[in-house]
Design goal:
The chain has helices spanning 2-20, 35-46, 59-62, 64-73, 92-101, 113-119, 128-138, 144-147, 150-168, 179-196, 200-222, 235-261, 275-291, 308-339, 341-355, 364-368, 371-383, 415-419, 422-425, 464-481; strands at 77-81, 84-88, 106-108, 174-178, 390-394, 398-400, 403-405, 410-413, 482-486, 494-497, 499-502, 507-512. It is α+β, with helices and mostly antiparallel strands. Helix 9 (150-168) packs parallel to helix 20. The structure holds protoporphyrin IX containing FE. Protoporphyrin IX containing FE binds next to helix 14 and helix 20. Pfam families: p450 (PF00067).
């Protein structure tokens, strides 16, 4: 029957097809593929915290299924997600083919409907022309020159939040803070400034509503997925719909006010471009063009208006893609500096040298000169990449580095495995050694594409500059004011649940440094 064909015969033929090319993997099992074994391997490895306490050799724990099967079948192997074949590819040349040279033949994997509801139908999930249009409209927000506008504002948030610690800690006494929680306030602020600019307070209200929605969606995600469940008028769904309406209403008001208050052709707050302004602007420009009958410019792809629904979805996407990722990076950077006091000292010396010993918020120029801190952040992104893997799907039959990949095959790019590969990074791959980045990213490894915490190619992370800027800023401000070490209650247990996070939080002890006179 057709079911047997899909669930049994086709997977068996595929196995045969790959096996002939020398690609093997765990055998396909009826219906579930290798999912059960994967879950068992992951649960087993994450059941215990890591020993020794501060080992960075976290790959076997975090991607245990990958480490396990790689040992048996080699680094390019086939595994089964139900009846769908997924090819693990950790060779940087092949990865470059998938993400850059032959990117047109692969598409981003479509996430589960519930995850989609969480992440929004924005840049992350859009495809084709709509993606290209949005990416073009939104890119200017993330240019470093534009982002510098958020430094004083986000810096102030960090300083205000730190002031709370200063009241409890002193030069004699330490204060314990779970930084994995704490940094979420910082990243939320940064993303709100970037997205809404001058309309920060209104934007905050929108994001708070969206955060509530996410809590509901995340709860639903934990339950077994029932097709259509999302559309049933359950109590939770009613609340979600209400929140959805509320978000739209708020945004409509905000947009209306924006249009009234400012020159409609500018999205300015002193020259800075925010996401909302750019999206409104694209719409206004389009309307104008459409209204002017003699326009010969109608064919320009940027002339399309971005409807309110799409603006709402983009806001959701940026909140989803930009908040937790960056707060995880901030938390891991702090943990690593706490584990490696010699690097903490070096980073602090540099901050004091570049920014002076006053407590002024660092400027963009100063942040640009913090080379050691930049190296530390890169080394953190290498060892503890917040996004541990990426997935693509072949849109057609593809020839990839000598292999024939049938249409529909999924490709798993285990970012973290590439980052921990001794053949690429040398025998000290599992050590924290920021010096390896001293001559820049391209020279840090034996292959120029061995470092990809933000992906690669046209669909590379649009928020990369923001994430790094924010991290540099927050860590520099902390280094100016505090020394810190891990709390004895810290348990080293990096765990992946969509993103890489510390399973038991990241409690860190902070001690105030003598104040500048
Ligand atoms: C340390 C922080 C971050 C990490 C590690 C990270 C990682 C990534 C990765 C690996 C991708 C590519 C995924 C793929 O190709 O399948 C990506 C895409 C993306 N990221 Fe980030 N990200 C971070 C911060 C941010 C921030 C702050 C924002 C927004 C404000 C953001 C927005 C996006 C968007 C919109 C995309 C999709 C881009 C497109 O397809 O055109 N990210 N990110």
């Amino acid at each position: 029957t057709k079911t047997m064909e899909v669930l049994w015969w086709r997977p068996r033929r595929m196995e045969e097809h790959f096996s002939k090319q020398g690609i093997r993997g765990p055998p396909y099992r009826f219906l579930f593929g290798n999912v059960k074994e994967m879950v068992a391997l992951m649960l087993h490895s994450s059941s215990k915290p890591m020993a020794p306490h501060n080992s960075h050799n976290i790959l076997p724990r975090v991607l245990s299924f990958y480490t396990h099967w790689k040992k048996i079948y080699g680094s390019t192997f086939l595994l089964w997600f139900g009846p769908t074949p997924r090819l693990a590819v950790a060779d940087p040349d092949l990865i470059r083919d998938i993400l850059v040279s032959q990117a047109g033949l692969f598409e981003r994997y479509e996430s589960h409907p519930l995850v989609r509801q969480l992440e929004g139908e924005g840049l992350v999930s859009l495809r084709g022309e709509k993606w290209a249009h949005h990416r073009k409209v939104l890119s200017p927000t993330f240019h470093l020159d534009n982002l510098k506008m958020i430094i004083p504002l986000v810096g102030k948030t960090v300083v205000d939040m730190l002031a709370e610690w200063e009241t409890v800690s002193s030069e004699e006494e330490e204060v314990e803070v779970d930084v994995s929680e704490w940094f979420q306030g910082v990243t939320e602020d940064a993303i709100t400034r970037t997205a809404f600019g001058q309309s920060y307070d209104d934007g905050k209200a929108v994001f708070q509503l969206q955060a509530q929605q996410m809590v509901f969606a995340a709860e639903a995600f934990r339950k077994v997925f029932i097709p259509g469940y999302r559309f049933l008028p359950t109590e939770k769904n009613m609340i979600t719909w209400k929140l959805d309406k509320e978000v739209k209403r708020n945004l409509m008001m905000l947009i209306g006010r924006r249009k009234e208050n400012s020159n409609p052709t500018s999205c300015n707050q002193g020259g800075a471009k925010d996401l909302l302004g750019l999206m409104i602007n694209a719409s206004t420009a389009a309307k104008k063009r459409n209204n002017s009958k003699n326009s010969i410019d109608g064919a320009s792809p940027t002339a399309e208006a971005i409807p309110i629904h799409d603006i709402v979805e983009e806001c959701k996407t940026f909140f989803f893609a930009g908040k937790q990722t960056t707060s995880n990076l901030l938390a891991w950077t702090t943990v690593l500096l706490a584990m490696h006091p010699e690097w903490q000292e070096r980073a602090r010396d540099e901050v004091l040298e570049v920014c002076g010993s006053s407590h002024d918020i660092p400027t963009k120029e100063q942040l640009g000169k913090l080379k050691t801190l930049g190296m530390i952040i890169n080394e953190t992104l290498r060892l503890y990449p917040p996004a541990v893997a990426m997935i693509r799907r072949a849109k057609a039959d593809v020839r990839l580095g000598g292999y024939d990949i049938p249409c529909g095959t999924e490709l798993l790019i285990p970012i973290m495995a590439v980052h921990h590969d001794q053949r690429l990074w040398g025998p000290d791959a599992a050590q924290f050694n920021p010096s390896r980045f001293a001559d820049g990213v391209a020279r840090a490894a034996r292959h120029p594409n061995a470092f990809l915490p933000f992906g690669m190619g046209a669909r590379m992370c649009i928020g990369q500059n923001l994430a790094v800027l924010e991290t540099k800023l927050a860590i520099a401000i902390i280094l100016q004011r505090f020394s810190f070490r891990l709390s004895p209650s810290y348990v080293h247990a990096p765990t992946v649940l969509m993103l890489l996070y510390p399973n038991y939080g990241a409690p860190v002890l902070f001690r105030s440094l003598p104040k500048p006179s």
